[in-house]
Inverse folding.
C-alpha cells in the first residue's frame, strides 16, 4: 500500500501522473486544500485519510509532493521516519529546494527525491549532493504537449484584430523570502512595471487576467492595481489552462508554472519580473524572454 500526501495543486498533478504511470492500485490519500479538490475531480469516490488513521493500514511507501509555503509534506516525511516507512518526495519546481524541506530551521529529507528533468536533477544534486535523487521521464510535460496539440486542432480562428494578452497572476508575496525583498518584488509593483513597459511588445491589445489558485481572493486587488495604471482588464473564467493560453497571442507572468505550457504552445511568452528586482528567473532554462531585457 502506498500513501500519497499533498497540499498544493501543482504537486498533486505530478502525483497523479506518477499514479497513472505505474498503474498503482493499492493506494490511499492524505490530502488537503487544492490537492484534495484536484484529486476529487480525478478519482471517483475518493477517500481521504488523516495521518492518525494511517496506522490501520499496511503502508509500505509514503510519496509526497512539496511546497515552500505549506509544510504538510514535512509532516508526512516525519511520520515516515517515525514509523520506519520508506519515503519519497516529488519536486515539481525549480527553486527553493532546501526551503521546501526545512521546518523551524531543521532539514527533513525523505529517503528519495524524485525529479522529472535533467535541469531539476542537477539543481537537486547541487543542494543535496549525498542524497538519493531519482530522475524519471516527464510524463506531466508529455501530457501538456498532448493537450496543446489537441487544443490547437480545435481552436477557431479569431476575427479580433487586437492582440490578446493573458497575464498569469502569481503568489509573489508568498514566495518572497523576506519583507525587505517583498517591498520591491510584489504583484502591485510587477503590474505597475508591466503596464509601463507593455508598449515594447504590443500596441493595440486587450488584457485578460488568469488568477493563480492561491490568489483567487485577490481579484479586487489585482483589478485595483491595473486601474491605478489606467488599464482596463477582464478576468478569465476558463477552467482549462491550455485552452486559455491558446486563445491568446501573448502570455505574461513572473515565474508561475503556468508559463511552462505557454512556452511549449509556442506563443509569445514574456517574464515580467521588474528590472529593479535583483532576481534570477527560475524558468531561465526554458529561455523565456524577459520584458526587462527588451529596449
Amino acid at each position: 500500500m502506498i500513501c500519497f500526501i499533498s497540499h498544493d495543486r501543482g504537486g498533486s498533478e505530478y502525483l497523479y501522473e506518477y499514479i497513472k504511470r505505474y498503474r498503482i492500485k493499492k493506494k490511499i490519500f492524505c490530502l488537503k486544500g487544492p490537492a484534495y479538490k484536484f484529486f476529487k475531480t480525478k478519482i471517483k469516490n475518493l477517500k481521504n485519510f488523516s495521518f492518525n488513521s494511517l496506522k490501520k493500514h499496511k503502508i509500505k511507501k509514503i510519496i509526497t509532493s512539496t511546497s515552500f509555503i505549506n509544510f504538510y509534506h514535512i509532516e508526512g516525511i516525519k511520520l515516515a521516519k517515525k514509523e520506519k516507512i520508506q519515503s519519497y518526495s516529488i519536486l515539481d519546481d525549480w527553486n527553493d529546494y532546501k526551503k521546501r524541506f526545512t521546518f523551524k530551521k531543521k532539514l527533513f529529507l525523505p529517503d528519495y527525491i524524485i525529479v522529472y528533468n535533467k535541469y531539476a536533477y542537477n539543481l537537486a544534486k547541487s543542494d543535496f549532493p549525498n542524497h538519493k535523487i531519482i530522475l524519471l521521464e516527464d510524463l506531466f510535460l508529455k501530457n501538456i504537449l498532448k493537450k496543446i496539440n489537441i487544443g490547437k486542432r480545435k481552436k477557431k480562428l479569431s476575427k479580433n484584430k487586437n492582440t490578446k494578452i493573458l497575464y498569469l497572476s502569481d503568489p509573489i508575496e508568498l514566495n518572497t523570502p523576506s519583507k525587505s525583498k517583498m517591498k520591491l518584488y510584489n504583484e502591485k509593483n510587477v503590474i505597475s512595471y508591466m503596464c509601463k513597459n507593455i508598449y515594447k511588445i504590443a500596441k493595440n491589445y486587450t488584457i485578460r487576467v488568469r488568477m493563480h489558485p492561491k490568489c483567487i481572493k485577490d481579484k479586487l486587488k489585482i483589478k485595483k492595481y491595473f486601474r491605478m495604471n489606467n488599464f482596463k482588464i477582464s478576468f478569465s473564467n476558463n477552467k482549462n489552462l491550455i485552452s486559455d493560453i491558446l486563445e491568446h497571442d501573448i502570455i505574461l507572468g513572473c515565474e508561475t508554472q503556468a508559463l511552462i505550457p505557454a512556452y511549449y504552445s509556442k506563443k509569445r511568452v514574456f517574464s515580467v519580473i521588474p528590472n529593479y528586482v535583483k532576481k534570477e528567473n527560475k524558468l531561465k532554462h526554458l529561455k523565456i524572454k524577459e520584458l526587462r531585457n527588451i529596449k
Observations:
- Residues 139-154 form the longest helix (16 residues).
- The chain has two domains: 2-140, 156-293.
- The chain is about 35% helix and 20% strand.
- The mean pLDDT is 90.
